[in-house]
Amino acid sequence: MEFIEKPILVLVTSRPFGKIIAAEGWRAAVGMFGMDHTPQLLFLGNGVYGLMKDQDIMHIRMFKSTFESFDGRICASKKSLEERNISADEIFENVEVLEEEEVAKAFVENEIVLTF
Questions:
Q1: CB-based burial of residue 39 (10 Å sphere; 0-12 exposed, 13-18 middle, 19+ buried)?
Q2: Which of 6, 36, 72, 101 is deepest in the core (most CB within 10 A)?
Q3: Is residue 21 assigned to a domain?
Q4: Which residues, other chains included, contact 40 with Cβ-Cβ below 8 Å and sequence gap of 6+?
Q5: What span, in angstroms and rounded, lies between the C-alpha atoms of 44 and 51?
Q6: Taking the chain (116 residues) in consecutive chunks of 10 residues, what is each chunk's mean pLDDT?
Q7: What is the pLDDT of residue 100?
Q8: Residue 16 falls within a domain, yes or no?
């Protein structure tokens, strides 16, 4: 069977505290590069809390650094940020803030969606 690269959206909707689910989303996204896929990370709903740069969550910082070294695309829903009163200045650098139309487009463009 021939390997076919597929566009994969890694959707993070879980808060980063209290559980490891959000960190597992980062880990899965990094692992996709090892399988020759090009994942896109999208933070939606409470998942946007995982992008707060003032957090001291070492494993998320490590996965972010590795993900970026592969030129991975990290995105956040503008609506989710606004609903939680989080400004773009409060989240990690190099995160694309997407309007609702762009969030919808991410779901259409990616053949597989993994939710964490």
A1: buried
A2: 72
A3: yes
A4: 7, 8, 9, 10, 72, 73, 75, 106, 110
A5: 11
A6: 80 86 85 80 94 76 70 92 96 93 95 92
A7: 97
A8: yes
